[in-house]
Amino acid sequence: MAAHWLLEKLEYAEQVHDESTLTLARLHQVPNPHTPGSNYTNGFFDQQWRDEQAYHVNTNRSAEREQVELGRLLCLEEELNDALSSVVTTPEQALMRARTCAIVRRQLEAQQLRAQPIPEDSHLNRTQREKLTKVWYAKTELRRTFLALVEERQPMLRVCRAGESTTLGTRGQQRLTEALRKRKAKLRTTLNTYNRLAQAFIQSTPDRPAPPVIEYAALTSLQSDDTFWNDGIFTNANEPWAVDPLTQRGIRALACLNRALKEKRRLTWEVRRAMRWATQNHRRLVSLINDARVYMESREGNPPEPGVIPPTLDAIFGHLVMNSLPTQAFKIGVVAQVLQTSFQETCDLQLEWNDKLLEVFQKTSPQYGDEFLLGTWNQQLQRIKCAIDYHCLTQIPGHMNRTLSHIMNGHYQIVQIVPEGDDGDDGDDDDDEEQYLADLDHILSESLRTDLERLPVDQHDQGGH
Questions:
Q1: Residues 115, 69: contact at Cβ < 8 Å?
Q2: Separation of alpha carbons 271 and 265, rounded Å
Q3: Which pick of 39, 113, 115, 402 has the fewest CB atoms within 10 Å?
Q4: Domain spans of the chain?
């Protein structure tokens, strides 16, 4: 699974890298109107990105909020004026609306004093500035409505994804569908208001960069971080990063390229870390199996004394769960089972990872120590496959075959293959002992194997076998 994940990440990073490189290459062929005599360059895009970041870091957000609030009051005033002029009302209703208009007018005058004009729009007259401010408010409302629809849609998207389930139920889905229908209707209304105000501003000020007009289908296909949502056009009309679509595209492409390069560097480290962990775990288990094998051979005949336990196995034999075993022979059987099972899992993992990890390894940048790491990995895989050919890697609990030890230590010239089921060990263990070991499998193995992961790699094992 880890190897598949690493390969998928690498393929996606390469795809983003190639697409971003192609986009930038095309932009490099386009003359840059902001630097006459030259085309767009990565240096220009990088500087524009820094300028945009600096603006957002240093900008006064409260001033922007005051402008948006001013736009809201201007839109409200326009709605009230339209209502007064188009609807026939009783004298009482007319009086009430007149009072409402007076209240809005006072709020509007107070807000105009609080909202400082944008310096870039100093050449615009009052009517033009008010039109632009209303567009700004309408776009803010459009964004809010759009995000509300996206959020409302999330439970329904989870229903459609493979492998995911829902607790909505039929009635829940019906209620959600009705809520989405209302959200979509509100989004259409808000979009129509925004487009109407944007077109009115474009007609009144054709020489100034204007907010883009957009259709409903295009709006619903946008991502939440699309450049359409950039409000720089209201505050920085003279900055390329705020008003020039090609500059915005170049900034995004350069950012994607840098992220792809960073991701590939991270995957370079991750694949080597995974391979290093597997090879070190493999060597550690082979070393422990060798020591356990020697100890088991010294115990042939089941002498009454436990003998000298290898220092590398002290932590395993001294584990708390071992105290529940009545004899040293039982303890040796459990240790053999734990080591064999752990080694089998590591070998299976290396076999599963091999093709995809090596593909990621070869497609990423070389690192110091690659030759040793790759050599160790290939050597271990060769020995694992050899052990499989000789039927030495088995799922029999506690089955520590001498042939397996020979192969995993690099001794390939095997004169005689020990028949399966007879590896030279004493075969006269009681049936009760075998049944007892089988019953202890799930109880003891998991606890011992968990603690086995914490054991350090033996000193003589650092260089490999």
A1: yes
A2: 10
A3: 113
A4: 125-230, 264-413
142: tokens are 């459009």
pLDDT band at 215 (very low <50, low <70, confident <90, very high): very high
8 Å CB contact between 3 and 21: no
Q: Measured between alpha carbons, how far is 425 from 433 in angstroms, rounded to an integer?
A: 15
- DSSP code string of 375-442: HHHHHHHHHHHHHHHTT----STT---HHHHHHHTT----SSPPPTT-SSS-----HHHHHHHHHHHH
Contacts of 17 (CB under 8 A, 6+ apart): 257, 260, 261, 264
To 10 degrees, what angle do helices 91-114 and 61-86 make?
160
pLDDT digits (tens, 9 = 90+) for 333-362: 777 778 888 888 899 999 999 999 999 999
Mean pLDDT confidence for 80-85: 71
- Provide the Cα torsion 214, 23, 257, 147; round to 10°: 10
